[in-house]
């Protein structure tokens, strides 16, 4: 609202108190209408009927929210599709999984209006909007703030995690990124015979140089598997991490 209002005031050139209030109110009303339209569009694209006007409005509000650089409305639509696909494969309730997937983060658009975690706020809103108890529980439990009471609730948790953690979905801070690379290298350095290691490809690969005097070719194969297993058990990361162990043998002679 502030950005759009400032742009219009600067473009018009008439900036005084009465004009500011007029423009802010006009922009606010336009955004209110746009939020409802965005919610209706999302429900139409996903084929979700019967959502109340208030529910559609709160879905549309998510267009103007982001989480770690990921647009929350796009994320919610993705979760709805993923949950529906998995529900179909498992012969579960596709409509419920899709509906709850779209609504699972509506609390993020209204967290300032209530107290507590966004999952709980979202569940309270969904109940207020007339959603059934199954959908309400799915929303409340998608971060385990409440116990999941259906298989569809588990699917929405999984879909939420997939959408949030897939490579490129969210930005991470520089400190977090550097810490992740450091943790990868520290794990490798904890094994005997490792001389140097480098986390490369934005943490998607770690190259480990070992001493050919301390590590045989057979042991290098085992070492790669052991490092990969330790990374799996101790670190959280998107996608996969390739572990490359390099054991170099140099034989030097001279022609005189």
What does this 3D model show about the protein?
It is a single chain. This protein is mainly alpha-helical. It folds into 2 domains: 2-165, Orthogonal Bundle (Hypothetical protein af1432), CATH 1.10.3210; 174-247, ANL, C-terminal domain (GMP Synthetase, Chain A, domain 3, 2-Layer Sandwich), CATH 3.30.300.30. It is built from 10 helices and 5 strands. The strands form 2 sheets. A 3-stranded mixed β-sheet has the order 3-4-5. Strands 1-2 form a two-stranded antiparallel ribbon. The radius of gyration is 26 Å and the shape is elongated.
Q: Helices and strands in order, then pairings?
A:
Blueprint: H1 2-12, H2 17-46, H3 53-61, E1 66-67, E2 70-71, H4 72-89, H5 94-103, H6 118-128, H7 133-141, H8 151-165, H9 174-189, E3 194-200, E4 205-210, H10 217-234, E5 242-247
Parallel strand pairs: 4-5
Antiparallel strand pairs: 1-2, 3-4
Helix pairs in contact: 1-2, 2-3, 4-5, 4-8, 5-7, 5-8, 6-7, 7-8
